Sequence to fold (177 residues):
Amino acid sequence: MRTVEIPGGTARFREGRSEMRGRDDLLISAASAAAASVIAKVPENTPIEGETPAQAEERALGMLQDMQLTWQEAQAMLEVRQAMVVATLESWTLEQPLPTMANIGDLPGDLYQALLAASEEVPVEAAATFEPDPDEASPTPPSSASDGGLRALTESKSIRTRPRAGASTATGNSIPA
Fold:
């Protein structure tokens, strides 16, 4: 565990996968999966010799701005950062309960920013990542294989759809009246 100063007290963060619970790992995996398309677009931020941390952060911000993310993509990336806080924050000395994904955005701004910064220092191996199965024989194709429509799914015999209001449907198991 790593202890860091936060506004109003201290916080302890889990470090490494061995300290994370299964649900922490799943939370980060789910958030990463939702942001997978954005994560794939992010260029590698290789440190430049002699660059200060502030300069590196400014350069990284510029790269993200150049990506021209949609609102949904930016929100997905923010949720990955918030999931890292919720998953790695083990305890704190504050009187209030630990934040959850539902209420982390309600924290005071200085506390919120301190938690985001502290969670970014968690070793990379602690963060779960979502990577699609590269196996072409996989029963679940990558998201890029979809044409964006649901017609194929709703026409599939293995997927049942709800009838529209007032409509009746017959199935192979229906008993004639």
The chain has one domain: 2-126. Residues 2-126 form one domain.
